[in-house]
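Key result, reporting period 2: structure in, sequence out.
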């Protein structure tokens, strides 16, 4: 699936009368991102309850938490092909159905094995949403607003994370502070996982209210419908015949990208593909998802009571939103590369301080007051700098950096690499934390530091460039 329609002349903008409609379309498509964030993070509220209910150790627990990410990788790798065959909107609707099935199944598991299975199904939906959302938004966005509208995906993800933590906190309090307390005839953690049915159904309904991508319509010969949608999103002042011809010409120059097209160079893949993989891996190897999958467990392990630990998970999510808004404001003003560098420096500081704080022995089961406050503040600093940089710019980079003829396949490989890296961090954290929590954060600090020379040497700025210029 090519991730964007061909852009009109640089500097062309949407007519103001149409911008509100384009924003609605982008926001509706980004509902997949909301579910991506919600489903990824909601498990945070259930980790300790699952450990207790099924009496499992850290290694088995980590696999149940992380196994969804295998589904994510498969979904990300296949979403482009599915969308090219049946359309972007149908792909969203399939994802919405899978999210719904996963929510119901996860809330009503028979045993640990089927909980894992429902999480894999949800992971497949997340993987699809991670690819189809940015691609669809790029295809319907006027070039002047593409960066900001593309940021909707990450904004939706972080809002989904925050809402999941708020819901978890509210349900925990309703259950008397016990993750296994009774609510609506179920244990609290089951209700936490089941609530996702609501946004999943909303995603399906919103997908019925937005148009198909003009690029897909042209690819299947529906030129008149493509003209109508181009008029909706770019305004009637645009020469629609010229735009349709431009897209058709560009598509004729392209061929359906395949995995084989990515091969080349001295190291299996073309260099640009490795750069995309590198961005994806660094985004995960700084340990960001530990903050969203395990933060409640992390704070409880250093003596914070469950209710407060859930509250800190929520405040971290709010900081995540603040950082994402900052990134959305500046991504088209200062560029993608400067934001990534600023974020890397800030993450190094935050992670190093967390490593220092966790290196101190517990006193009566708690961190000393000074180290406790440093750990809490540093965790928020880390999340803030991640959100205002790598959280947004990696998705924007991946939507823009690849040449047209390999964009579909390259984006799928890079997104899959991101999920595999996410799985590696998620699956390893409980065991690493049992080994040495401070040492674990030192590892994340090292990766944050290494991201700086990687960006400086290998990553090219894409701000202000038409997608046709990516070579």
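The corresponding designed sequence is given below.
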């Amino acid at each position: 699936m090519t991730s964007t329609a061909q852009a009109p002349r640089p500097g062309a903008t949407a007519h103001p009368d149409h911008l509100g409609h384009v924003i609605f379309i982008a926001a509706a498509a980004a509902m997949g991102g909301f579910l991506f964030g919600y489903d990824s993070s909601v498990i945070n509220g259930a980790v300790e309850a699952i450990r207790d209910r099924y009496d499992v150790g850290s290694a088995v627990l980590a696999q149940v938490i992380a196994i969804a990410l295998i589904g994510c990788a498969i979904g990300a790798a296949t979403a482009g092909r599915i969308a090219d065959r049946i359309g972007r909107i149908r792909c969203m609707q399939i994802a919405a159905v899978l999210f719904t099935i996963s929510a119901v199944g996860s809330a009503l598991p028979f045993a640990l094995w089927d909980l894992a299975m429902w999480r894999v199904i949800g992971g497949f939906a997340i993987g699809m949403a991670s690819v189809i959302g940015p691609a669809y938004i790029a295809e319907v966005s006027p070039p002047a607003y593409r960066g900001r509208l593309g940021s909707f995906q990450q904004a939706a993800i972080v809002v989904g994370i925050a809402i999941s933590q708020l819901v978890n906190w509210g349900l925990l309090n309703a259950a008397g502070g016990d993750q296994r307390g009774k609510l609506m005839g179920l244990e609290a953690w089951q209700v936490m996982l089941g609530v996702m049915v609501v946004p999943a159904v909303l995603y399906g309904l919103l997908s019925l209210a937005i148009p198909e991508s003009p690029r897909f319509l042209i690819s299947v010969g529906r030129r008149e419908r493509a003209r109508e949608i181009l008029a909706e999103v770019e305004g009637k002042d645009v020469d629609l015949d010229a735009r349709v011809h431009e897209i058709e010409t560009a598509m004729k120059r392209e061929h359906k990208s395949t995995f084989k097209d990515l091969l080349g160079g001295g190291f299996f893949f073309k260099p640009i593909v490795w750069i995309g993989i590198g961005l994806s891996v660094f985004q995960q190897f700084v340990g960001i998802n530990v903050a969203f999958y395990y933060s409640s467990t992390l704070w409880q392990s250093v003596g914070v009571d469950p209710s407060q630990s859930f509250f800190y998970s929520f405040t971290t999510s709010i900081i995540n939103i603040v950082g994402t808004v900052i990134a959305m404001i500046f991504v088209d003003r200062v560029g993608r590369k400067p934001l990534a560098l600023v974020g890397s420096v800030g993450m190094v500081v935050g992670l190093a301080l967390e490593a220092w704080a966790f290196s101190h022995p517990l006193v009566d089961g708690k961190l000393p007051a000074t180290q406790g406050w440093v750990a809490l503040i540093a965790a928020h600093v880390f999340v803030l700098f991640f959100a205002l940089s790598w959280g947004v710019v990696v998705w924007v980079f991946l939507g823009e950096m690849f040449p047209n003829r390999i964009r579909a396949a390259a984006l799928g490989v890079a997104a899959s690499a991101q999920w595999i890296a996410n799985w590696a961090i998620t699956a390893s954290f409980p065991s690493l934390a049992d080994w040495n929590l401070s040492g674990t954060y030192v590892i994340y600090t090292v990766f944050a530091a290494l991201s700086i020379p990687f960006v400086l040497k290998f990553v090219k700025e894409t701000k202000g460039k038409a997608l046709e210029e990516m070579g």
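Residues 16-210+254-469 form a domain with the Growth Hormone; Chain: A; fold (CATH 1.20.1250.20). The radius of gyration is 22 Å. This case is discussed further under Risks and Mitigation.
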